[in-house]
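REVIEWER CHECKLIST
Item 1: Sequence provided? yes
Item 2: Single chain? yes
Item 3: Sequence as submitted:
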Amino acid sequence: METKKILIPTDFSVKSLELVRKAIVETADQPLEVVLLHGTILSNSITDLLFFSKSKLVKELQSEEFVEACTVLKNKYPSKIHSLYVEVITSNSPAYFRNFVDATQITEIFVPEEGVLNFKNAKGFNTLSLFSKSGTPCFYFNQEEQEQTEAVGKKQFANIFLSGLK
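Item 4: Structure as written out by the authors:
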């Protein structure tokens, strides 16, 4: 069976990874290549631009809980998740985003409802408005169905990933 490449926005919170689990359920038995997307506006400083590193930015933004949650997802769904990695875009232009989607060969985008992700805490911009203009099929998920708890850290991690265990 061919691997499907999907895009999911992230603000580097564990809560943002709930969409990965929902995407796994929605895609039945098809293996997935999951691209977690984060948008950031670059500084105008020539020094900052010269020394910009996507991997350094991602390491800076990822919390220990986020990395651990990604590892748990990969281990819990090894037959479903072919790969899971973070991509960073540096413009909120619809044309830039369409080119990104075409270049990375994204087949579907899984979108949370507005307000679920907090991009300001992750030095980023809201990428959700770009998705509908890309021409790529989008699947919208309503987060109201899940419990609205304000738990953070390990407790939030447990709520998201250990629910539904058989």
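Item 5: Key structural point noted by reviewer: Residues 151 and 159 are 9 Å apart (CA to CA).
Item 6: Recommendation: ____
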